[in-house]
UniProtKB/TrEMBL annotation:
Pfam families: FkbO_Hyg5-like_N. This is Chorismatase FkbO/Hyg5-like N-terminal domain-containing protein. It comes from Hydrogenophaga atypica. Residues 37-161 form the Chorismatase FkbO/Hyg5-like N-terminal domain. The lineage of its organism: Bacteria, Pseudomonadati, Pseudomonadota, Betaproteobacteria, Burkholderiales.
Length: 308
């Protein structure tokens, strides 16, 4: 095991022997109360704990998790975001594995406002500042990611890094997130729409959290079915971009594994019905989470693995 994500409200029964990101959110529309997403490797792993990052390295793959609690009177979310990323960048330099492939960002109250700025926008500020302080580009060659709100708990950032640069992909139907106009906050989000990455002998496609956004605008406010369809239209277009760059023959919609973040628990059956229409019986887990724009009701991410 390189590392894992645990989805569900219950904390792990026993402490994991590997870095584990616990997404403290209810699983929806399933009789399984908890799900694991496990990243398995063939090589013997090396464990580390550096500056609060729990990490594991196997060969040239590195997975890690950092959780930073927000304490009363302590650092704000912008500062914590900068700290989390700065620590990750230092670890990657020390391990000589500079290339971030995928990030999973979770935080409490993502749509709440503090000191006049929405907390997601504070996170974007802190993240962009860390990329700049780490002499990393904030446009173009940036990792795939997601950023969601959960009911409480620390800022939690998990990452997968490797020895080669990820091939970033964008969506021609959408303005690149790193070029969103200033109406969405003082600093744009730092992520690509998808990334193709190459663990030994494999091609791994990460499709970032994908929402009902066309150009840079949210569409279908209040209509979760239309938002899910629009999100999947975006996923399909990103997948077509991936096919053009793929070295493995391309990934099919029905062969990916999906995660849907759903703002209102009651919407889960509607999201599941649209997903069944679009991806058939492909693996799907729905979790209750807040998307980073208040009008967005659903966000969908996916990954696929193919042998080379
Ligand atoms: C969007 O397209 C929806 O800030 O890392 C999706 C994926 C979204 C990643 C991030 C945000 C992020 O803008 C939100």
């Amino acid at each position: 095991m390189l590392g894992a994500g645990l989805l569900g409200l219950q904390p792990p029964a026993v402490a994991a022997g590997w870095p584990l990101q616990h997404l403290r959110a209810p699983v929806l529309g399933s009789n399984q109360p908890a799900w694991h997403e496990a990243w398995q490797v063939a090589e013997a792993p090396l464990d580390g704990h550096t500056e609060g990052i729990r990490w594991r390295r196997a060969g040239d793959l590195l997975f890690g998790v950092i959780e930073l609690a927000e304490t009363p009177g302590g650092a704000d979310l912008r500062t914590l975001s900068t700290q989390a990323y700065a620590r990750i960048f230092r670890l990657l330099e020390a391990q000589a594995l500079p290339h971030l492939w995928r990030l999973w960002n979770y935080m409490a109250d993502i749509n709440g406002t503090a000191a006049g700025l929405e907390r997601y926008r504070q996170f974007n500020l802190g993240r962009a500042e860390a990329f700049e302080q780490g002499a990393r580009s904030v446009v173009g060659r940036v990792p795939a990611a997601c950023a969601l709100g959960v009911a409480g708990g620390p800022l939690s950032v998990a990452f997968l890094a490797g020895p080669t640069a990820a091939e970033p992909l964008e969506n021609p139907r959408q303005v690149s997130a790193y070029h969103y106009p200033a109406q969405y906050g003082p600093r744009s989000p730092t992520f690509s729409r998808a990334a193709l990455v190459y663990p030994p002998g494999q091609e791994l496609l990460f499709i970032s959290g994908t929402a009902s956004i066309v150009g840079h605008e949210s569409v279908h406010p209040g209509d979760v079915v239309a938002q899910t369809r629009e999100s999947m239209d975006n996923v399909a277009v990103v997948l077509e971009q991936a096919r053009r760059h793929s070295r493995s023959g391309g990934h099919a919609l029905s062969e990916l594994s999906y995660r849907a973040y759903v703002r209102h628990a009651a919407d889960a059956p509607l999201v599941q019905a649209v997903m069944a229409e679009r991806v058939g019986a492909a693996p799907l887990v729905c979790v209750l989470a807040d998307v980073c724009r208040a009008e967005l009701l659903v966000e969908i991410e996916a990954h696929g693995l193919r042998p080379l």
